[in-house]
Amino acid sequence: MAIVGPESSYAERAQRADAADVLASFREEFLRPTRGGVPCAYFAGNSLGLMPRKARAAVEDVLTEWGDLAVEGHMHARQPWYRYHEDLAPLLAELVGAASDEVVAMNSLTVNLHLMLVSFYRPSGRRRKILLLPEEFPSDRYAAESHVRWHGLERSECIVELDHSPLEPISPATIIETIEALGEELALVHMSAVHYLTGQFLDIPTITAAAHRVGALAGWDLAHAIGNVPLHLHDWDVDYAVWCSYKYLNSGPGGVGGAFVHRRHAQNPATLRLAGWWGNDPATRFSMPQWFEPVPSADSWQLSNAPVLALAVHRVALEQFHRATMERLRQKSVLLTGFLEELLTELGRAYPELGITIVTPRSPEERGAQLSVRCAALSHAMYEHLLTRGVIVDFRKPDVIRIAPAPLYTSFMDVVRLGRAIEEFALRHLTDHDDGRVPTR
Ligand SMILES: Cc1ncc(COP(=O)(O)O)c(C=O)c1O
């Protein structure tokens, strides 16, 4: 009997888990792509989250008010545009574990990273090194390198990439040993909290504390972490963090990013920041002060007035998280990802020819809603097969299939559907390529 057939224990367990899922109704709040008129099972929310149905009306409302009110909308729209971004701060603060004055929705991730590096990479004397993960996301590497060069320094003497295989989880002990070895030469630790390729969730407080012990700062890229794993940035004493909103936060392609700056930096007038009028204290902004008077919060890193159309979508998406709560999402996420892991492991055992290896750490504390899987030489063929079956995952070089069961809209039966498509691939592959041998079980 097939491992994931309609009568299998996986299907039965999935139906029971879906019936008991307190977040199940959120699934209906999203649109999803279809294949042949059938909605897809969507596992690519770590790349681009699904569209909340309410996003369209939210954008139309802003367009209507723009048409009706024009410039008056800044003060008299239902949610006045002048302080639109301020209303989003409490919702973001909940997700990253911060106070509202420590977070701001603005720009995009890489732009925000540059703004943070201006403030928090301040090489001086021997303290000039930046520590990065092995094979960190390219934008982070490029940004770090460009700041090194901006300061007139050389990449080879300032950028330290951890010496470790990028396709294997890294132990926090290795990171901490490197931090300690760099000691007073280390200016900044900048890392992805959840690694885009392996899905590993790093121990942010321990690594941040290690950086602080040697006198360095610690900043985090939360692209794959926000809305995915529990975060307590303020209590963890993180210096800065940046994120995008189009992955787990479902705020649309190129949606507005965000930043966290710890209060001790944001309220310190000596913290250097690039200035623009929107970062000025709103109390004096329109009296057009001659010189920059930063508002003592993360808002002071804003340069320009806020992109209200994009923020309207972001607001819808953040309100969904507020209703769902990170606590419940995390509970479901651990169960759902665990279920996926169990199914993939059994398929791997039953069909060793597929060469299934799960790259992501096995412990729920060290991962979010993503399993990265390699299938020896078959990864790309498997990926393409899944797409034809209406199961959307993604593929990253060299041979990694990333599967992200985002708990807000993924059901346990979606996981079963993925399992069925993998099993179908296994059976067909063996039939086509292995002397017509079909396993009996
Ligand atoms: C880990 C990580 N960092 C940075 C980026 C770049 O984001 P953006 O294009 O919004 O600047 C991405 C994009 O996917 C990412 O995954």
Count of distinct structural domains: 2
Cross-sheet strand order for the largest sheet:
6-12-11-10-9-7-8
Question: Which band does the percent of strand residues land in?
Answer: 5-15%
What best-fitting shape do the alpha-carbon axes yield? Answer: globular
Mean pLDDT: 95
CATH architecture of the largest domain, please? 3-Layer(aba) Sandwich
**Structural class, please?**
alpha/beta
Largest sheet descriptor: 7 strands, mixed
Termini, distance in Å? 6 Å
Bound molecules: pyridoxal-5'-phosphate
Give the helix level as a range of percent: 40-55%
The name of the CATH topology of the largest domain is Aspartate Aminotransferase, domain 2
In total, how many beta strands?
17
CATH class descriptor name of the largest domain: Alpha Beta
Radius of gyration: 23 Å
Helical run tally = 15
List segments where confidence is low: pLDDT < 50 over at least 5 consecutive residues.
Answer: 435-441
Q: What is the CATH superfamily label of the largest domain?
A: Type I PLP-dependent aspartate aminotransferase-like (Major domain)
Structural overview:
The structure is a single chain. This protein folds into 2 domains: 9-52 and 326-433, Aspartate Aminotransferase, domain 1 (Alpha-Beta Complex), CATH 3.90.1150; 56-323, 3-Layer(aba) Sandwich (Aspartate Aminotransferase, domain 2). The termini are close together. It is 40% helix and 13% strand. By secondary structure, the chain is of the alpha/beta class. It has helices spanning 9-20, 54-69, 73-76, 84-96, 109-120, 138-150, 155-158, 172-182, 204-213, 263-266, 282-285, 308-324, 326-350, 379-388, 412-433, and strands spanning 30-31, 34-35, 38-39, 41-42, 51-52, 103-105, 129-132, 159-161, 186-192, 217-221, 240-243, 258-261, 356-358, 371-375, 391-392, 394-396, 400-403. Helix 1 (9-20) packs antiparallel against helix 15 (412-433), helix 5 runs parallel beside helix 6 and helix 13 packs parallel to helix 15 (412-433). It is globular, with a radius of gyration of 23 Å. Bound molecules: pyridoxal-5'-phosphate. Pyridoxal-5'-phosphate binds next to helix 5 and helix 6. Pyridoxal-5'-phosphate is lined by residues 108-110, 137, 139-140, 192, 196, 221, 223-224, 244, 257.
